Amino acid sequence: MNQQLNSSNEIFIVDDDPAVRDALSVVFTLEGFHVSGFAEGNSFLAAARARTPACIILDVHMPGRSGLDILKELNAQHYGAPIFIISGQGDIPMAVDAVKNGALDFIEKPFDADTVVARVREAIEAWARRSMEKDQDSILAAEFPGHDLLTPREREVLAQIARGASNKEAGRHLGISPRTIEVHRARVMEKLGAKNAADLVRIVMS
């Protein structure tokens, strides 16, 4: 059971490289966050099950279990905080897999500290906003053919598409990059058998 104990301003950083952990810790501490660092998956999973932080930053390459394995074990699709994956240029297919398995978005190395802070803040704000909107959203609640095939995040992206939002607008609203919206959009269209955005809207409204 996740306890919300003193964790609303906490960020978990999971990376086996102490230099990356230290650099991110300093940046986020200066921004007023409380940071907990983890060098491997087991201690992180134990902490993540005991309390829900404001955000998680997880390296895709970890000793033993990969970031992808850790996401699956955490059941990231249904976890109560946004999760960013850190990936190098060559890890983009893996980062896309991570998004399919519940990561909110990915941050490419080398990264700029200010950009990472801005993206994490946006994600935390969007997460809080989405929680408030969820109850009012008829598209998220609607039953349509293939509804049960979609993950909660894919339904949120679909709700944005159905409102006519561009990838950029949908990304801004959900606190993720347009590129990641594109990944979700492609998955939604594949799962629902839609040829284009108009087709998607027709399926949802049917």
Structure description:
- This protein is α/β, with parallel strands linked by helices.
- It folds into two domains: 118 residues, Rossmann fold (3-Layer(aba) Sandwich); 69 residues, Arc Repressor Mutant, subunit A, CATH 1.10.10.
- The chain is built from ten helices and five strands, in the order βαβαβαβαβαααααα.
- A five-stranded parallel β-sheet has the order 2-1-3-4-5, with helices on both faces.
- Helix 7 crosses helix 8.
- The radius of gyration is 17 Å and the shape is elongated.
- The N terminus is likely disordered.
Features:
206 residues, alpha/beta, Rossmann fold, Arc Repressor Mutant, subunit A, elongated
Break the fold down into its secondary structure elements and pairings:
Blueprint: E1 10-14, H1 18-30, E2 34-38, H2 41-50, E3 55-59, H3 67-74, E4 83-87, H4 92-100, E5 105-108, H5 113-134, H6 138-141, H7 152-162, H8 167-174, H9 178-192, H10 197-205
Parallel strand pairs: 1-2, 1-3, 3-4, 4-5
Helix pairs in contact: 2-3, 7-8, 7-9, 8-9
